Structure formats: C-alpha cells, structure tokens
Amino acid sequence: MPVSTGPPTTYHAELAWLGDRPEPDVLIEVGDEGRFGAVTALSPGARAPAGATRLPGLTLPGFANAHSHAFHRALRGRTQEGLGTFWTWRERMYEVADRLDPDSYRALATAVYGELALAGITCVGEFHYLHHQPGGRPYADPNAMAAALVDAAGAAGIRLTLLHTCYLSAGVDGAPLAGPQRRFGDADAHAWADRVGALAPDPDRWRVGAAIHSVRGVPADQIPTVAGWAADRSAPLHLHLSEQRAENAACLAHHHRTPTELLADLEVLGPRTTAVHATHLTDLDRTLLGDTDTGVCACPTTERDLADGIGPARSLVDAGATLSLGTDSHAVIDMFEEARAVELHTRLRDERRGHFPAAELLAAATVAGHRALGWADAGTIAPGARADLVTVALDTTRTAGTDPAAVVFTATAADVTQVVAGGRVVVRDGHHVWLDVPAALRTAIEEVATA
Fold this sequence. Notes:
CATH architecture of the largest domain: Alpha-Beta Barrel
Radius of gyration: 21 Å
CATH topology of the largest domain: TIM Barrel
Structural class: alpha/beta
C-alpha cells in the first residue's frame, strides 16, 4: 500500500450525514488508528479550530460496494449493443476470463478499485471465482489470483472482503464445468475449503468471506460444506440467487423447489447470508428471506444492462431483509446511481412513486453494505467507527440547488471531491492521490479485452 503522510486529525464538514440526515458545521476527529474520535456539531456562530481541514459540500460515510466482479469492467462499452441475453453476454465474459493471469488481473483490479475509490467506495466485496489457470490446473500458489485482488485493493487504498467463491458445476443437474469455466472449479467443496483456509487475511485491510456461486454452480450436496465453513468462522456468506428465470426453471425441474426453498431446506439462509439479485422470487421466497433476516444485495445498473429484470426490493425489505448495493459487472461505477435506481426501477415496476426515502437508500450504500461484508464497525460517522468519509460537491451542474438531504437523487460519482478511507486521504479534489486511474484502466483493459 503506498506510503501516505495521513490526513489532518480534524475535519470541519460544511454538512455531515449523521444518522439519517445532514447536520451543518460538524467537527470530525480522526485518530492515528484510522478511527473516528469525537464527532461534534458546532454551536451557531462558533468557529472551527485552527488547523481543521474544511470539507465544503456534504460529507457522507464511506460507501460499501457489496458485490463486485472486477474483471467484468473490461467489458464496459464492448457488449452493450446488439441483440442478446445474459447468456450471450456471458460468453463474452468468459473470453475475458480466459485471458487473465495473476499479473494482468492485479493490474486490471488495481485500476478498477481505483475507479471505485474515485466514486467514494471505501470497501468492496469481491465475488471471486476466477481461481486457476486456463484448463483448470492450479497455479503454484493455488490462491495466486486471490492474492492479486488483495494486492490490488491495497494499491488502490480501499478495504476488501474477498468473497472466495465455490463454483463446481455448470448446471443444477451437476453437469461438469467446461471450457473457460474450468478455471473456476475445484474437485469438490472440501477442496475449495482447504484452499480458502490457506489464506491469511489482515483484519484491518482485508477479510475473507465465502460465496456459493449459485444453485447451478454448486450441487445441493456440496452447499452445506461451504455454508458450514462460513458459519464456523462467523464469516459473511454470499450467493447469486434467482438472477435468471432459466435458473429457477432448472431448479424446479431438478429439485422440485425454487432456489430459495432449496437454500432454506439446506439451512443456508440467515443474517450472515446475502442473496445477490434475488430478482425472480415467489411470495414464499420473499417470506423465507425476510423471516430469516437474510440480506439482499441489489445491483440495479447491471441488472438492467443484462436485461435481468427488476427485483421486488421494497417487498423484500418490508418482509425483513436488509438491503445492500453492488456494482456487479461495473457497467456503471456510481453508488448514487445504484441507490436511486432501486427507487426508480421500483417506480417502473409498480407504476407508483415514493418507495424508498433518501436516508434508507444511503443506509443501503453505507452501513448495510459494510455489515454485509463483515465490517460492522464501518459505514457511519460516529466515534469509534472506521474513519471513512466521502465529500460530495453541492455546487456542480447536477447538485446546485439540491436539498442536501436528497443528494442521493441528484449527485453522481463525478461529484465526489474527497475520499478518506481508514483515516487516510485517497481522493483529493476529485483525483486519486497516487493512481492515474484512467491511464491504468486503459492499459489494463487493452491487454485483456476482446474487440
């Protein structure tokens, strides 16, 4: 991780998001350990102490991107035109996956995580399933690709939860992996567990969680091994759930249950589990997710880019699920857009406005996302929490005249001016402090992308 002299110990935020609303003139102290000290609203007319760094605009807690596939970023602007479905897009994705090695993946992920930092994301959950060499042979270090992601997050200055993904089969019927998919697989879930167990995370910089790719990617008799590994370590467990109608149909045909019903029977659901997408659900599915306090991660910009459909976000939250957000394929990297798209897509679905207030959307992008990734001490501007700050300009062509309480409906990633992650300045004046992110993206993508 690049050396930094560190931020000043005190910030003076013109406006700071405390709890569920913006408060004016807030002093925010940051300790040497990268956590918040006192957070104090100044009395009317009081002056900030000398030496406090002024943060003009609205300062929010750091964003958590709860679902990322870093290498998918190489497809942006290359797959958007033409006819097709998720399944035809997937073939292009496999082409990129087959071209990556640890060095090229490190370069690409560093650039992508730098772009995340510029968007105010201070923690990312990487749903990592690209494990082995082409053909499926392990690298000399069986976790070489995971190590590349850890290095990349450190180089970009953000925290990482490596959601180490078990991926064993090509379909619900247990069909073997073929072609580029062979890079994803292990012999079985026990072999996966042995490999992920060899990782040695740094709890202040990166942590390890588990992921079940999907009910088509992990046979039912292997799923409890992955879930048990996570439960034994109190680690996050994530999984793709009902992203595609075809997956639901295959699961019903093979198991005579929906994917959610199958996971409930296998005792996978619960408060440490996050179901990603959860787009095509029955009423019973929604009840099962809510009753078990299972989290749900929506990725609206990817879901619309891949024509997946619009999930029942409001009814899931009302049932008891906790909502977080992810940028998934990185067709867009903008947590403001992800957050407001939850509301706007629900309007299209229900033909009615007013489903999610701004505070609820920002909570999904901050505190809920961090908790889904195993960082319960982040996502709020409060004493003792990890010192992550995202300052948004309120005088741009997008935000000028905006009620600060509604900035989630107007701002974009381009309005982020300063980012502090773990007490250290990562973005200043809209630029990454040590990475040339556009140049790094261009170079890394040109090496691996298809025409």
